[in-house]
Amino acid sequence: MSGKEMKGQARSIEEGAADFLERNRAPQEIEKDWNEWINRGGQEVWARPALSRAERSIATISIMSVLRDEHTLRVHIEAGLANGLTRLQIGEVIMHSAVYAGTPQALRSMQIAHEVFEQLDLAQANVVGTGD
């Protein structure tokens, strides 16, 4: 992990976006403006009132899965959990995408979800076990 390490709790979309931009740097001459532009667009769409953050997470997980954007899918699986989705719901979203986008894509997306959940479980176990 770079940026903020997982500590057993899923990161919000804002935390995930900060980590994403840290991992996907722009040239120094435009980086500040680029990051502000990316963040502004994301903040505006996530703040719109017609869909809840959980519903937006469902849409975004579906889109990232279909696009095979593995890093962004990881960010949005975590954000989906932080936005109130259950692991089962995330799995159902990915399963649903298999019918429309293909099984090979869904197989990889399920593996990514498994890895994210496993990392969160491991981090939580480490946090719980540090107080002894």
Short synopsis of the structure:
The protein has 132 residues and is an all-alpha fold. It is built from six helices and no strands.
Can you characterise this structure?
With 132 residues, the protein is mainly alpha-helical. The protein has one domain (13-131): AhpD-like (Up-down Bundle). The protein is 75% helix and 0% strand. The protein has 6 helices and no strands. It has helices at residues 13-23, 28-46, 53-67, 70-82, 87-101, 103-128. Helix 1 packs antiparallel against helix 4 (70-82), helix 3 packs antiparallel against helix 4 and helix 4 packs across helix 6 (103-128). The longest helix has 26 residues, at 103-128. It is globular and about 40 Å long. The two termini are 25 Å apart. The model is unreliable at 1-6 (pLDDT under 50).
Q: Topology, pairings included?
A:
Layout lengths: L12 H11 L4 H19 L6 H15 L2 H13 L4 H15 L1 H26 L4
Keywords, separated by commas or semicolons:
132 residues, mainly alpha, AhpD-like, 6 helices, disordered N terminus
Could you list the spans in which at least 5 consecutive residues all have pLDDT below 50? 1-6
- Spell the H/E element sequence: HHHHHH
How many helical stretches?
6
Broad structural category: mainly alpha
Secondary structure: helix percent: over 70%
Q: What is the count of distinct domains?
A: 1
- CATH architecture annotation name: Up-down Bundle
Approximately what portion of the residues adopt beta-strand conformation?
A: under 5%
- Dominant shape: globular
Sheet with most strands = none
Measured between the Cα atoms of the first and last residue, the distance is: 25 Å
Secondary structure: number of strands: 0
CATH superfamily heading: AhpD-like
Gyration radius (Cα, Å) is 16 Å
By CATH reckoning, the class would read Mainly Alpha
